[in-house]
Fold this sequence. Notes:
By secondary structure, this protein is an alpha+beta fold. The chain has helices at 24-34, 43-53, 75-87, 96-107, 117-125, 129-152, 159-172, 235-254, 261-277, 284-293, 364-372, 378-382; strands at residues 6-8, 38-40, 60-63, 112-115, 177-178, 207-210, 214-215, 225-228, 300-303, 324-327, 330-333, 338-341, 344-348, 353-355. The strands form 6 sheets. The protein has a 4-stranded antiparallel sheet, with helices on one face. A hairpin with a 4-residue loop joins β11 (330-333) and β12. The termini are far apart. The model has no long low-confidence stretch (mean pLDDT 93).
Amino acid sequence: RSRRTTLYLPHRYPGHDAEGQLSAEDEDDARRTSGADTVAGPERLAADLARLLLRGPAPALYTPMSPAEGAAGTRDTLLEGEARSASDPWDRSASREGRFVQLLRERFPQYELRDLSPILDRLRLIKSPAEVVVLRRAARLCGLGVMEALRCTRPGLFEYQLEAVAHFVFRSHGAQGEGYRAIVPSGRNTWHAHYSANDRPLRSGDLVLMDYAPDYRYYTSDIGRMWPVSGTYAPWQRELYGFVVELHKRLLSRIRPGVRPEVVLEEAAGEMREVIEHTRFSKPIYEQAARRTLGFRGHLSHPVGMAVHDVGDYWSGELAPGLVISVDPQMWVPEERLYIRVEDTIVVTEGGVENLTGFVPHDPDEVERMVRENSPLERCLARAVWP
């Protein structure tokens, strides 16, 4: 590297004192962590850009133009929020990135501005071995939290209490918090795939879905498990959930480097069509739902990394080692407003696939056994706070 780099830290950076000065110790720490040659405040950026113009023709300036995720944020939800603001005649406020680009164009029209986001997205798509280590730990915490919630499940608890159990496990094992808002619907709430109010009591006979993961050293995970509140799947629940579990297994068995995602889906769907032909469904609408499920492209859902819906496009090429994605087969039965899913976070390896959250049971018999186990946290949930 022949060029010197400068890191510009905002004044709200923790190392700044009341007068906006960065301590020498924090400056050294920021320089060591980032690899930058020098560290400065934002007030120096304009002077440095002006000085650069004196050296010759203005070079291109690269700056991210897509929204930065931040804690528990994802690019897709932030873009949706920006679109709502832009279409609101009483708002139309620009994003922080948009305001920065506008100021650069106003103050330094000599520069050609280019979007750095696609370059960063490509860099984030394939994880390094060090990143996979952190993601493996995030997945471990994710699974431990879900399994403890499984053990605590019983009729009468509220959905938010299962969320609290998993969150306790995350925080007590070193997580910074949650990687995204907890999704813990039960009963009729499961129809809403991203339901997060979590305010309904658990009732015997219902299924409960948990989709929740920690923020561990700025990386997260993703998981989806559904289990019976009573501890035993009803016949129709086992029928539908078991079909999705079987599809999940077939998808995992087909993931390997060098294959395109659509090939994985087609191969798994071909195997599952044979399963459907040899299955007696209890209702015609269940068979119809199973057949529709095989045409859904979202079973290989999204990258996972620093955000739960991480950035980068893996559909336009072949799967490669270091790619971390969510495998999330889903089924809808609209006639009865039923939604079934089984989700894991996996990493593509040189030899095939590693299921990072696969230690959490999804086989119906194993799930039932775990729901019947006792948890030391049950005593905390049973203790009354209000009269």
